[in-house]
UniProtKB/TrEMBL annotation, chain B:
Residue ranges of domain FtsX extracellular in the record: 60-146
Membrane-related topology note: Multi-pass membrane protein
Domain ABC3 transporter permease C-terminal as annotated: residue spans: 181-304
Transmembrane intervals: 21-46, 178-198, 234-264, 276-299
Name of the protein in question: Cell division protein FtsX
Keyword Transmembrane: yes
Gene Ontology CC terms: plasma membrane
Family membership: Belongs to the ABC-4 integral membrane protein family. FtsX subfamily.
Gene Ontology BP terms: cell division
Locations listed in the record: Cell membrane
Top-level taxonomy: Bacteria, Candidatus Berkelbacteria
Gene3D superfamilies reported in the protein's UniProt record: 3.30.70.3040
UniProt source species: Candidatus Berkelbacteria bacterium CG10_big_fil_rev_8_21_14_0_10_41_12
């Protein structure tokens, strides 16, 4: 993979909120099949970088290329198609409480114009991948934290994204569930999806032994191929 | 696929609708008021127009001549008035005809009729002008006031009729203006209410909207349910206003002549029947414009993609 062009290329990206500079000319490349862990203290700019990657916000300066395309120049009608290529998982799961596991995952396909037939085909597969086949009729309130996060991962995977972003996915979970989630993320990565994981979980970082990028005060302070969580 | 998309969007819209039922009822209530105001204004406007038209058709101007007026002068006046195209008819009434008309009147006592006879006929000769339009009245007035005619003219029904028609015109204009102002007011209030109702629905659904955004929901799904919701408000408001108008007319006519509205109602009922489809189309347009239009404004402002 040495010399290969990165799929995600963040070039001198800055983000400013009024006078507050949150990201300061960050440059980062992520290649096909990589698993990148983003660490750093709260307020370092990890979540802002993620918001820029999913185009919830636009950078103040610099450019972000995904598969060679400058995503800050996407037209509004192109955004949904872009987002279907980027799965996202949050700490607070963001599930619809009045829908079952199956319906929560199906919802992502329904609102993306997928046919009923395709929905029926895809969902069992994705639920199996996260080990939730048996729980497909349960409502979110009947699930444990780990199970909820697995539903959220299933929903993120259902479009077969090139990139899966997980923002503090284990923040609300016990260590056992956190390990389950990290195993699932590794499995997804093994199947070819780029995983970008932002986390505070030291144990998770040390266990995964993947590329670790540390952000501090809006700058990348270290980028290690097989990093460990370093307390500074 | 289009069918599936609509089925899904309708499902979401119905869920929104039932989840915020009190808000939905308020929006429908206000929109019903708006549609009712527009409809009543239309019906009243049609009715007074028709009443005015009937009145104008009935009103003729009669110009009576003094006995010293020559036949040639009367003929000259008739010719001058005939230059106007819009006069339906100008009829010369000779003394004999005037007498015949007088004798045939039923509301005149026989003793009085007996006084007037062919030998001693005081009835004047006249020109009966059937005016088409109120604006023609002033032309007639201008002609008969000319110096060559004025000394020979005994009387004309011009002034009395002018006053009557002016009154009718004033009422018609007032109803139109008042109705228009009231309609615009209610339409604007409804737009605001629906705008805010949809805005609240969007806020209530902010969690779902965020998920929609993240999973790459199409623009159609982010917007269509709200537009459908607005359309549903308009649709229900249309049904309610039609029902209210229909029931009101039926109820009021069943009371017969005891109400002061009865004479107006006898006019409105056939007009309602005659203009039913036009009214329905206008109601549908008003309902859709308020419902869908206000939702659209709300979506544009509050739905972030």
């Amino acid at each position: 993979m040495i010399g290969e062009k990165p799929i995600i290329e963040i070039r001198k990206v800055s983000k400013k909120y009024s006078r507050n500079l949150v990201l300061d000319e960050i440059t980062l490349g992520i290649k096909r099949g990589e698993f990148v862990i983003l660490i750093g203290p709260s307020g370092a700019g990890k979540s802002t970088l993620i918001r820029l990657l999913i185009q919830e916000e636009k950078p103040t300066g610099g450019k972000i290329f995904v598969s060679g395309r400058d995503i800050s120049r996407l037209k509004p009608y192109e955004l949904p198609y872009y987002r279907r290529n980027v799965g996202i998982v949050f700490q607070d799961f963001k599930l619809l409480p009045n829908k079952t596991v199956y319906e929560n995952v199906a919802y992502a396909l329904e609102v993306s114009d997928e046919s009923d037939e395709n929905i029926r085909k895809k969902i069992p597969k994705v639920l199996e991948a996260v080990g939730l086949t048996e729980r497909s009729d349960a409502y979110p309130e009947e699930l444990s934290g780990g199970e909820k996060q697995r539903v959220s991962i299933a929903r993120a995977l259902v479009h077969n994204p090139k990139l899966l972003i997980a923002d503090e996915p284990t923040g609300n979970l016990d260590p056992e569930s956190a390990r389950e989630i990290s195993d699932i993320l590794e499995k997804i990565n093994c199947q070819g999806t780029i995983v970008l994981l932002a986390t505070h979980n030291k144990e998770l970082v040390d266990r995964l032994r993947k590329r670790v990028v540390t952000i501090k005060k809006g700058k990348i302070v270290s980028d290690m191929a097989q990093g460990r969580y370093v307390c500074r | 696929m289009i069918f599936t998309r609509f089925k899904r969007a309708i499902k979401i819209a119905l869920a929104n609708f039932s989840r915020n039922s009190m808000l939905a009822i308020t929006a429908i209530f206000i929109m019903t008021l708006a549609i009712l105001t527009v409809s009543i204004f239309m019906l009243l406007s049609f009715s007074t127009n028709e009443a005015a038209q009937k009145l104008k058709d009935k009103i003729d101007i009669t110009v009576n001549f003094k006995d010293e007026a020559s036949e040639a002068l009367i003929q000259q006046l008739k010719n001058e008035l005939s230059t106007r195209e819009n006069f339906k008819s100008i009829h010369y009434i000779s003394k004999e005809e005037a007498l015949k008309n007088f004798q045939s009147r039923v509301n005149v006592k026989k003793e009085i009729k007996d006084i007037v006879n062919p030998a001693d006929n005081p009835l004047p000769r006249g020109l009966q002008i059937g005016a088409v339009d109120f604006s023609q009245f002033d032309f007639v007035s201008a002609v008969i006031k000319k110096p060559q005619y004025a000394p020979y003219i005994d009387s004309s029904s011009y002034e009395d009729n002018k006053q009557l028609i002016q009154n009718v015109n004033t009422i018609t204009k007032f109803i139109k203006k008042f109705g228009l102002v009231l309609s615009i007011m209610f339409v604007l209030i409804s737009v605001l209410v629906v705008y805010n109702t949809v805005r609240l629905t969007i806020i209530f659904r902010s969690n779902e909207m965020e998920i929609m955004r993240l999973v790459g929901a199409s623009t159609f799904f982010a917007r269509a349910p709200f537009l459908l919701e607005g359309f549903m408000y308009g649709f229900f408001a249309l049904i309610f206003s039609q029902l209210i108008i229909f029931i009101s007319i039926k109820l009021l006519t069943s009371f017969g002549s005891v109400t002061i509205f009865s004479s107006l109602l006898t006019l409105i009922e056939p007009i309602y029947a005659k203009n039913f489809w036009l009214l329905l189309v206008v109601q549908l347009i008003v309902g859709t414009v308020i419902g869908v239009g206000s939702s659209w404004l709300s979506i544009r402002k509050f739905v972030k993609l």
